[in-house]
Write a structure and sequence with these properties.
Rossmann fold; alpha/beta; globular
Length: 274
C-alpha cells in the first residue's frame, strides 16, 4: 500500500476551493493526534514565549495545515513554509493567496540540508520530517544557526519504539507507512545528544502516542488509509466510518495529550537557542 498517493488524492479533493481547503485543515486538526500535540505546544509557546510578531519557519510544510494554524495563533507573524515537493508548494501558495494571507505566509522549495538563513527565525516547526532525512545532524545545526537568540525549535517525529509502525508483523500493512523513512525513529537520549551537539540547550523531550494514542491512530488513520489503498469506493463510506469512530478516537486523543507516557511511538521535542 502506497501512502503518499492516498494523501495526494485527499489533498486534490479538498483543494478545489478555499472553503474545502479550510475544511481539510480542520479535519486534519481533529483526526491527527500529532496535530493535537503540536497545536497544544504552539498555544503554550504563544502564552509563555512569544507575545508579539515573530518570524516562523515551517520546515517541511506539506499541505500547509500547520502554517495555517500558526498564522491564526501568532497573529501578524511572518511565516515561511519550505518543502521538497513543488506540487504542494504551489497548492499552498495558491490557497494562501486566495485567502489574502500571501503577505504573511509564503511557501518555497527548500532542502533543509542546505538551509542557510542565519538569525532569521524565532520559531522553527518540524513535523514528521526528520525521519526522512539521513543527514539529521546537519539539519539540526542549520536549524540552530537559523534561529535568533531565545528562539525555539519544535519537533514532532516517530520514536524508536515502533514509531514507523515497525512493531507490526504484517509487512504489507507496514511497508507503505515507512517506505520513505531513513530511520525507524529516535530515542530520547539520541535526539537530545544530537540537538546538544548542534548547540541547543534546555531540551524537553517527551513521548507521544502512548497506549491511548496508538489505539486512536489505528482507528483514525491506519485502517482508513489501508482501506482506501484497496478500493476507491471507500471514499464514499469514509464519512460514515468517522461518524462511528471519531468520538472514541477523540477521547483517546485527549487522554494521550494530557497524560504522561513512559513510552510511546512518537516524540515531541522542544529545544532552545540561548
Amino acid at each position: 500500500m502506497e501512502y503518499d498517493p492516498i494523501k495526494r488524492r485527499l489533498g486534490n479533493i479538498f483543494n478545489r476551493t478555499p472553503l474545502l481547503r479550510k475544511l481539510f485543515y480542520s479535519l486534519l486538526d481533529l483526526l491527527l493526534l500529532r496535530a493535537w500535540h503540536v497545536n497544544k505546544e504552539l498555544r503554550g509557546l504563544k502564552k509563555r514565549s512569544f507575545s508579539g510578531k515573530i518570524r516562523i519557519l515551517d520546515a517541511g510544510s506539506g499541505f500547509g495545515q500547520y502554517s495555517y494554524r500558526m498564522s491564526r495563533i501568532f497573529s501578524g507573524s511572518l511565516i515561511k513554509g519550505v518543502d521538497v515537493k513543488q506540487e504542494q508548494i504551489d497548492d499552498c501558495n495558491q490557497f494562501f493567496n486566495a485567502i489574502k494571507l500571501q503577505d504573511r505566509v509564503v511557501f518555497e522549495y527548500g532542502d533543509l540540508t542546505k538551509l542557510d538563513e542565519h538569525y532569521s527565525y524565532d520559531l522553527i516547526l518540524s513535523v514528521d520530517v526528520m525521519e526522512h532525512i539521513e543527514e539529521d545532524e546537519l539539519v539540526f545545526s542549520n536549524f540552530y544557526k537559523s534561529l535568533r537568540n531565545n528562539g525555539v525549535l519544535l519537533i514532532s517525529t516517530p520514536s524508536d519504539q515502533g514509531g514507523s509502525d515497525t512493531h507490526e508483523h504484517d509487512e504489507d500493512a507496514v511497508h507503505g507507512f515507512i517506505e520513505e523513512h531513513v530511520r525507524d525513529g529516535y530515542g530520547i537520549n539520541d535526539i537530545t545528544k544530537k540537538l546538544q551537539f548542534a548547540g541547543f540547550s534546555g531540551i524537553e523531550a517527551r513521548y507521544t502516542y502512548g497506549t491511548p494514542g496508538s489505539l486512536s491512530w489505528k482507528f483514525s488513520m491506519k485502517y482508513p488509509i489501508l482501506m482506501l489503498g484497496k478500493s476507491k469506493a471507500f471514499f464514499i463510506l469514509l464519512p460514515f466510518y468517522y461518524l462511528v469512530t471519531f468520538p472514541f478516537c477523540a477521547v483517546l486523543n485527549y487522554l494521550d495529550v494530557n497524560l504522561p507516557h513512559k513510552k510511546g511511538t512518537g516524540l515531541l521535542v522542544k529545544a532552545y537557542k540561548k
